[in-house]
Amino acid sequence: MSTARYQLNKNKYLLDPEAEKLEHILLDFYQDDPRNCLLLSLLLRTGARVSEVLNLRKQDLNPFEHTVFIRGLKGSNDRELPLHEDFFKQLYTYASAQPEEQFFNISYNRLRQIWDLYRPAHKKLHCLRHTFAIRLYKKSKDLRLVQFALGHRNITNTMIYADYVYTQDELKKAILT
Asked: What is the set of domains in the chain, with CATH numbers?
């Protein structure tokens, strides 16, 4: 009995114009809705699973290195990821002002409802993880780096991003030239 390998397609990640639209939406609504905008932006900037971000604690933010420590869930590895300084400062300021140690104190279902309000395309919340991975792979062409950033224990899980990007790029070359 063989298991089918997970396949990516354009419905499972945000296309560049959709990701840019989301980034603009989050910037526009940040003043009125900082928690939710930070949450969605953090998912897009780290590729962390929703449950990993919802479990973040104040001590997971490193103000000296501008990093966030992600505790791997679902058998994933822990990892520490850098954030742009300006974004980190917004996140750190928000987290510091919260009374709870777990500063994003909402449920997974509530976050899915919030995603429905902000999403730039009719795609699932998990698409932010795939979007991050595809962007990182396109930028770095380093599969091990993507593996580390996503917390994958097995590189086979990460291979879908390289396979997908390679196939799309090669098809464009073959058909359009």
From this structure: 16-176 (1.10.443.10)
